[in-house]
Specification:
Elements (H helix, E strand, L loop, with lengths): L10 H13 L6 H14 L3 E5 L2 H11 L7 E4 L6 H8 L3 E4 L11 H7 L4 E4 L11 H10 L3 E5 L7 E2 L2 E2 L6 E5 L12 E5 L2 H10 L4 E3 L2 E2 L10 H32 L5 E2 L7 E2 L5 E5 L7 H10 L5 E2 L9 H4 L8 H6 L3 E4 L7 H14 L4
Parallel strand pairs: 2-3, 2-4, 4-5, 5-8
Antiparallel strand pairs: 1-9, 6-7, 6-13, 8-9, 10-11, 12-14, 14-16, 15-16
The structure holds pyridoxal-5'-phosphate (PLP).
């Protein structure tokens, strides 16, 4: 089976972890600080606050920006559950802004209609490794004095008009889950230029402690370990090379899809550098196989292929039970047609040829 994702971990990561183990200092310390500084510098931000996963980064970011009950955060409907759950965990409510049909990210043309007097923040998601169209989103948010938190959990190494994903809004959050463009095992980070947000996030991730056993606010324990940070420091050095490989693999796959009418490859929006966390194909209604038949056929051929999200987020039971609703016709139309095929940098040229041949067979009537 060619896996849909595979973390690339080698001797360098193993040596870095061994060094931490030998030191006996396992909890947040010097390596976490070094990783925060290195990652923030990579993105082009003044502060990095490392935490134990991407969900924690989003949660802490929203709290550090002062989100609370009675307020609303606008998010897109095509995303991972944490985009909505973290809003609810702050006591605020998620509202949904539909996606644009070409790139599946928050549609700036729909943002204005989604804003209410309760809207305190927007959280665009840089989906599948491509940033949302940030300039018009930022303009609309600034006009209403609304905060912008980028959910960049899928977009390490992506860029928008020459700036890195994560350097576009007021703050941004990344995940280092093992399937991501780089990993720390589990991990996350919040990056920002805002001194107050960074200071508040540092308190919230560590019991609100200002010094040992001195607690200024009620916080959590969301700290990153030294082991995770040591892996992250090694992985960060390799990120740009891996993203270049992902882009090269994506070009190959797009060429393989050329001529297969009814299978639409991902497209890169103007000014955007896609980092191809996922390579997502859309099956049009005219294609002889449904999305689920395609996924089954490719899986039978040993290609790790899977549907993308099963439904717009607001249809999840956990959200309906809390009376969170949405109506996003574009997301509803495309969600059942999207599927992911392997694009990761661990693919060999034989793997890529096998995928191309399997795609080609899909388009040939049996
Ligand atoms: C868009 C998005 N937001 C948030 C998260 C949460 O990150 P984590 O799994 O590290 O908690 C993820 C990760 O899967 C994600 O893809």
């Amino acid at each position: 089976m060619i896996p849909i994702a595979r973390p690339l971990l080698g001797d360098e990561e193993a040596d870095a972890v061994r060094e931490v183990l030998a030191s006996g200092a396992l909890a947040q310390g010097a390596r976490v600080k070094a990783f925060e500084e290195a990652f923030a510098a990579y993105v082009g931000r003044r502060h990095g606050v490392a935490v134990c996963n991407g969900t924690a980064a989003l949660h802490v970011a929203l709290l550090a920006h002062g989100l609370h009950a009675g307020q609303e955060v606008l998010i897109p409907p095509l995303t991972f559950f944490a985009s909505a759950s973290t809003v609810l965990l702050c006591g605020a409510r998620p509202g949904f802004v539909d996606v644009d049909p070409a790139h599946y990210t928050m549609d700036p043309a729909k943002l204005g209609a989604g804003m209410t007097r309760k809207t305190a923040a927007i959280m665009p998601v840089h989906l599948y490794g491509q940033t949302a169209d940030m300039d018009p989103l930022l303009e609309a948010a600034r006009a209403r004095d609304v905060r912008v938190v980028e959910d960049a959990c899928q977009a390490h190494g992506a860029a928008y008009r020459g700036r890195k994903a994560g350097a576009l809004g007021d703050s941004a959050c990344f995940s280092f889950y093992p399937t991501k463009n780089m990993t720390t095992g589990e991990g996350g980070i919040l990056v920002t230029d805002d001194d107050e947000v960074a200071a508040s996030a540092r308190l919230l991730r560590d019991h609100g402690q200002t010094s040992k056993y001195e607690h200024a606010v009620v916080g959590f324990n969301l700290r990153m370990t030294e082991i995770a940070a040591a892996i992250g420091l090694v992985q960060l050095k390799k990120l740009d090379g891996w993203v270049a490989r992902r882009r090269q693999n994506a070009r190959f796959l797009t060429k393989a899809l050329d001529g297969l009418e009814g299978l639409v490859p991902p497209s890169e929006g103007p000014g955007r550098t896609h980092s191809f966390y996922q390579y997502v194909v859309r099956a049009e209604p005219g294609f002889p196989l449904t999305r689920d038949e395609i996924v089954q056929t490719l899986a039978d051929e040993g290609i790790g292929c899977r549907p993308s999200y099963p439904m717009p987020l607001y249809k999840q039971k956990a959200l309906r039970d809390r009376k969170v609703f949405g109506r996003c016709p574009v997301a509803e139309q495309v969600v059942g047609r999207l599927f992911e095929i392997p694009v990761h940098p661990g693919l060999t040229s034989e793997d890529l040829d096998r995928i191309a041949e399997a795609l080609d067979r899909l388009g040939r009537p049996s």
